[in-house]
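U., I forgot to send this yesterday:
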Amino acid sequence: MRDSAFYCQLLLHEDRLRVLGALAMQPGTVREMAERLAMEVTVVARSVGKLVEAGLVRSDPSGCYTLDVAAVQAAKRSLFTQAPAASAATPDEKILRNFLDGDRLTTIPASASKRLVILRWLAEKFEFGVTYPERTVNEMLRQHHDDYAALRRYLVDAGLLQREQGVYWRTGEAGPDNVAQIA
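Result:
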């Protein structure tokens, strides 16, 4: 089964759509379709060839082409029943996709709201109820960005990590009061 992008590319061509429409009305040879559609024989032949290659059109030994209705219905299902693409991503997922390359942060967002999304993602790397010496925190954050000190400070300012005498631990989610602190 081909995907929806294939069918879109195939069918978003005026000549192929005209030929497909003509075949939906009545089977015919390339020459007959060219006459009915007032098109060049070579253009119709090329369009029919693409449609046959895609499996939407069949031919018999006499050179008569017919629409393969079952194949067209399968293509329709492919076009209209596939899961939504990346456009259905949540705003947080879009931010993560824009600022991450794998697990590496490409840049620290300047926008406080976008930075908070990144900080919440980073905070998930730390377990609740576990204490971390500053050196371990630095190593963990360095895996995601070279400016680990800024990230560590942002995490504390946002209330996602707490610190006392060089020891850090994960706290709750950053709330609206903490957003202003990380700006």
